[in-house]
Amino acid sequence: QLQLVESGGGLVQPGGSLRLSCVVSGGSSSDLSVAWFRQAPGKEREAVSLITSPVSSNGAAYYVPSMRGRSTIFRADAKNTIYLQMNNLAPEDTAIYFCAADEAVIWALDGDGTLMDKYEYRGRGTQVTVSS
Predict the structure, then answer these.
(1) Cα gap 88→71, rounded to integer Å
(2) Tens digits of per-residue pLDDT, 47-85?
C-alpha cells in the first residue's frame, strides 16, 4: 500500500522560509504526479503546487499565483521524496499542508482545492505557522 508522509512544517517568522517534504513509501515516486494543498482554519482548501511525473509526463511544475515566485516544488525520486521550498512566508500562509499523489495529472489553474479528493493517495499533513 503506497503511503505519503509530510514533514518539515513548524513555526516560522514572517519573511522566513520552510522546506516541506513528502516521502513516498510502498511505491515509486517517479511514477506519480504530486501536488501540495493547504487548508487554513475556517477557510477552504486550496491547491499550492504540482509537479508531474518525469516518467509518464515531463516533470513540469505548476504553481497557484499566490505562491509563484516564492516557492519551488522539486523532486528527488532517488529518495522517493518531493519537496516544497517556500520563501518569504507571510501569516496568511499559515495552514496545514498536505501532499497528494496520483498517476494522473490532476490540476486546475484556479487552484481548486477540492481536486485533492480525486487523488488516489493523500498524506495527513504538516502544520505551518507563520507568526512573529
Answers:
(1) 9
(2) 999 999 999 889 999 999 999 999 999 999 999 999 999
